[in-house]
Amino acid sequence: DREGGPVKAISADRQAGPTGLLQVLEATGALLWAMVRSTEPTVLAHHAWGRSDPEGFAAMGVVETLLHTHDAAQGLGLAWEPPADLCRRSLARLFPDAPLDTDPWATLLWSTGRGELPGRAPLESWRWFSAPRSPKPAPIEILPPADDLLSRTAQARDRHDFLQLGALAEELLRSALTLNDAGRLALALQCVQETATGLGDYPRALAVTSAWLRDVAAQRRRDFEAACLHSWGVFAGRAGDVAGSRRALEQAAAIAVQLGDLVQESASGYELAFAAEQHGDVPGAEILYTRVHQIALQLGDRADEAYALYGLGRCALERHDKARAEYLLELAIDIAEQLGNEELQQLIADDLIAMIGRSRR
Predict the structure, then answer these.
(1) With 80 as the cut, is the pLDDT of residue 226 above it?
(2) At what angle do helices 222-238 and 242-259 cross, to 10 degrees?
(3) How many whole angstroms separate alpha carbon 210 and alpha carbon 124?
(4) Are 80 and 65 in contact (CB under 8 A)?
(5) Rg of the chain on CA atoms, in Å
(6) Which residues, at least 6 apart from 139, have a Cβ–Cβ distance to it below 8 Å?
(7) How far is Cα 60 from Cα 51, in angstroms, rounded to an integer?
(8) Longest dimension (CA), the chain
(9) Peptide bond into 135 cis (omega under 30)
(10) Which three-class secondary structure state does DSSP give residue 56?
């Protein structure tokens, strides 16, 4: 109950010392054991990385105990290693992509970003998969009816319930893969973005989309891969990883070009253009904004046309071409007015006034 501390968490009284801490650990372990033993195996409950069954929660409890015991032992300079079978069973339940021909404990440490495996690169981000997975058939309940899932998502967005949105994003991804629904994937990624923005936690958004990339790549869904790469690139940029953001967005745009997906090419191209502009690469930004403008005209997307003109106008101002800048920005405002997009109108007008004012000084 300390100020600024986590809510809904069980903690030990520091004055009780190590004995009190061990009592709390024993009690919480017994609580988890009792819940697992007394709950029907097909019942599912919420978890941020996918609703899980009793078996999954048991595995999560085991992994948490093993890993944090390791962390504590490392801090104290103690050698410690858990039973191999316990590690092997935990890996099978929560880390289905983990290698099978390596030492189980070393593999669990590697899978959670704590160790290295010969011939494999260290993981920069990781997650487990708590939802029921094959070979055990997943209960029907994990994929609710489409209208119910979309309704719950809309309600969570209206309430700005970011924790719920994070859980729903996982359900939306599974639903998108099952139904082959690109629109549902876009909504899932939007939920991840809103959660990251609301909680200020872009590293978690990066971890989530990294895991999703592995899922969609395993199913050879190149269009889904491009969408996930695009979102990963956006999140990386927000987190300050400029180089990583650019690589991911360029990969997304390249896949979009291969697939002939003009919408995705435009989205990734705009993000790349904006990043180039922000880092002083005005010629590069103009090339990209011009391509976005061409696609917008081809698709008849007036909103994207306005944003592309807005970007080109800003670039013209950076080159001190005031006449061209005013022309482009006025075109963008006209389109925004036709669309009734008051927010975009005000955004362009404010920037136009500010930038022209700076150019006169």
Answers:
(1) yes
(2) 160
(3) 10
(4) no
(5) 25
(6) 42, 44, 53, 132
(7) 12
(8) 76
(9) yes
(10) helix
8-state DSSP, 95: -
Q: Cite the DSSP H helix spans in the chain.
A: 17-38, 54-76, 84-94, 104-111, 146-159, 162-179, 182-199, 202-218, 222-238, 242-259, 262-278, 282-299, 302-318, 322-339, 342-360
Full DSSP string of 183-206:
HHHHHHHHHHHHHHHHHT-HHHHH
With beta carbons less than 8 A apart as the criterion, state whether 171 and 144 touch.
yes
* Phi and psi torsions of 223, nearest 5°: -65, -40
Residue 1 structure tokens: 């109950």
- State the pTM of this model: 0.58
Residues 6+ apart with CB under 8 A from 311: 270, 273, 274, 277, 285, 289, 292
Dump pLDDT digits (tens) for 46-74: 776 667 888 889 999 999 999 999 999 99
